[in-house]
């Protein structure tokens, strides 16, 4: 019973304590429920605020709040400024009045500009009137001066008319070509001289010319030219009537043709070319219609003298010293053209109409035939004061470049002889060409076959029938005068073809090396002794 009672008391106490604990737990639960509800409400409020903030940020372009704040502050400031300006803005009445005043100002400005223009026009009119008065007074003075000058000119005109009449009266019967007409009456030029008319051997003739050139008995001056130079000059006379002698100063370019003429007993004339020559009048002279006189140049007198009986049967050499001081293609153009024509058409038209009395040798009183016995030799230096020859001049000419140094020798004594006749010299050339015609043709075929392709492809250098004709005239004379085919072809190749690639800026070193190898490889096919000295130097 006591145990049961203790158990019952214990169960009661347990129930009491359990009830108290349950009440306490229920109180805590209710408190937690309340706190949970409050937290949920607070959470929902925060979610709502977060949603509103996100919407606000999206509306503001997701920009940072500090930037938005700065913009808001700027807008507030601008709003305040605009509010202040609006408060200071004039009323509509004042605006209307201002617009009316501005329109009135524009009208006043237009009136002022118009009045200013009218004022300027009035002032200009007044100035013109003053000038007109001054000009009128000046014109009166000028009229008086002109009348005085007219009277003086009329008096001078009368004097000139009398002078012209007197000159015409005195010029009646006087030739407009005084120097040429004087030659017609010169007994020394009108008489013929015996001629040397036998050249059986051109080699011996060249050797004789070398000795005659070497010593000038009149001046005692000694001129040493190699036999190859003499031979080349003589063969050049068979090839072309225009020679170009090049080389540095002091190599005897001017002396060679003059000494050659002396050795042949030929006539010679030295013409000094001037840098200011521009046309044919500078070379041959000009006609003065007022004086009815042709001012004959030394060149024209030389051409006329070459046709006089004294020199007509022989050779005449005209030396144009420093020929490239001016452009030969300008002042020498008529001669270049005439030398390409047939002999019967080679002439110089001196005037457009005939004159009387004309010199005997003029055709139709106005044209001078180009003598067939004349060779033109131009000397040329190449420096900053000279001009370059055009290709057409080089192509028509026989070109020689004299060496810097010449070996001296003891000239053999020669006997005096008559001048060599033109017919004899040309006959010797013709005989040589007949004898060595095949060798000359073979030499041209060699040049054409071996060098046409490389010169045309790499250097754009070509040639035509003129080169063939020149070689057919040049090579035989070289051979007949004791030279070799190598010597002749080497000279033609160097002066006619390889000269065209000299000083060209577009030439490449490898092309020059290929050309040198082509010359060296092709030369043995020429079948002649010797090396191409001029072509490879």
Descriptive overview:
- With 537 residues, this protein is an alpha/beta fold.
- It is built from 20 helices and nine strands.
- It has helices at residues 2-59, 65-88, 92-171, 178-184, 187-190, 202-214, 227-239, 255-264, 280-284, 298-307, 309-312, 328-331, 333-339, 391-396, 422-435, 437-459, 465-480, 485-497, 509-522, 533-536; strands spanning 242-246, 267-272, 285-288, 293-296, 316-321, 347-349, 367-369, 374-380, 398-401.
- Strands 2-5-8-1-9 form a five-stranded parallel sheet, with helices on both faces.
- Helix 6 (202-214) crosses helix 7, helix 15 crosses helix 17 and helix 16 (437-459) packs across helix 17.
- The longest helix has 80 residues, at 92-171.
- The relative contact order is 0.08.
- The model has no long low-confidence stretch (mean pLDDT 89).
Helices and strands, with pairings:
Elements: H1 2-59, H2 65-88, H3 92-171, H4 178-184, H5 187-190, H6 202-214, H7 227-239, E1 242-246, H8 255-264, E2 267-272, H9 280-284, E3 285-288, E4 293-296, H10 298-307, H11 309-312, E5 316-321, H12 328-331, H13 333-339, E6 347-349, E7 367-369, E8 374-380, H14 391-396, E9 398-401, H15 422-435, H16 437-459, H17 465-480, H18 485-497, H19 509-522, H20 533-536
Parallel strand pairs: 1-8, 1-9, 2-5, 5-8
Antiparallel strand pairs: 3-4, 6-7
């Amino acid at each position: 019973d006591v145990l049961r009672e203790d158990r019952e008391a214990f169960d009661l106490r347990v129930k009491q304590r359990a009830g108290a604990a349950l009440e306490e737990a229920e109180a805590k639960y209710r408190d937690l429920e309340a706190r949970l509800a409050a937290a949920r409400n607070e959470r929902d409020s925060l979610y709502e605020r977060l949603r509103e903030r996100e919407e606000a940020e999206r509306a503001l372009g997701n920009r940072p709040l500090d930037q938005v704040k700065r913009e808001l502050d700027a807008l507030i400031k601008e709003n305040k400024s605009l509010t202040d300006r609006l408060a200071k803005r004039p009323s509509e009445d004042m605006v209307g009045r201002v617009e009316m005043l501005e329109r009135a100002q524009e009208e006043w400005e237009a009136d002022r500009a118009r009045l200013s223009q009218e004022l300027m026009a009035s002032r200009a009119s007044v100035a013109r009137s003053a000038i007109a008065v001054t000009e009128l007074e000046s014109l009166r003075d000028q009229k008086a001066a002109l009348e005085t000058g007219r009277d003086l000119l009329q008096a001078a005109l009368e004097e000139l008319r009398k002078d012209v009449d007197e000159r015409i009266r005195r010029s009646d019967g006087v030739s407009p070509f005084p120097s040429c007409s004087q030659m017609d009456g010169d007994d020394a030029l009108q008489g013929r001289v015996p001629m040397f008319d036998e050249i059986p051997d051109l080699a011996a003739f060249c050797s004789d010319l070398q000795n005659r050139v070497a010593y000038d008995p009149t001046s005692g001056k000694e001129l040493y030219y190699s036999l190859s130079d003499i031979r080349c000059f003589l063969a050049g006379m068979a090839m072309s009537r225009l020679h170009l002698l090049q080389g540095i100063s002091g190599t005897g370019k001017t002396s060679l043709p003059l000494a050659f003429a002396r050795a042949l007993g030929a006539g010679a004339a030295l013409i000094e070319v001037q840098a200011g020559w521009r046309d044919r009048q500078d070379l041959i002279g000009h006609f003065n219609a007022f004086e009815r006189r042709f001012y004959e140049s030394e060149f024209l007198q030389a051409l006329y003298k070459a046709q006089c009986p004294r020199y007509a049967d022989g050779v005449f050499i005209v030396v144009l010293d420093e020929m490239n001081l001016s452009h030969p293609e300008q002042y020498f153009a008529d001669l270049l053209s005439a030398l390409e024509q047939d002999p019967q058409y080679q002439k110089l038209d001196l005037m457009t109409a005939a004159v009387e009395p004309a010199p005997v040798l003029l055709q139709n009183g106005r044209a001078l035939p180009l003598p067939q016995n004349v060779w033109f030799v131009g000397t040329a230096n190449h420096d900053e004061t000279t001009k370059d020859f055009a290709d057409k001049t080089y192509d028509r000419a026989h070109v020689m470049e004299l060496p810097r140094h010449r070996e001296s020798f003891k000239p053999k004594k020669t006997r005096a002889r008559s001048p060599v006749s033109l017919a004899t010299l040309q006959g010797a050339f013709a005989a040589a060409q007949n004898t060595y015609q095949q060798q000359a043709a073979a030499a041209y075929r060699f040049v054409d076959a071996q060098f046409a392709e490389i010169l045309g492809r790499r250097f754009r250098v070509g040639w035509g029938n003129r080169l063939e004709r020149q070689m057919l005239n040049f090579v035989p004379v070289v051979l007949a005068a004791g030279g070799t085919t190598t010597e002749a072809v080497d000279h033609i190749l160097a002066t006619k073809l390889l000269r065209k690639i000299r000083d060209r800026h577009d030439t490449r070193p490898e092309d020059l090396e290929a050309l040198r190898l082509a010359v060296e490889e092709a030369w043995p096919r020429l079948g002649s002794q010797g090396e191409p000295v001029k072509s490879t130097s």
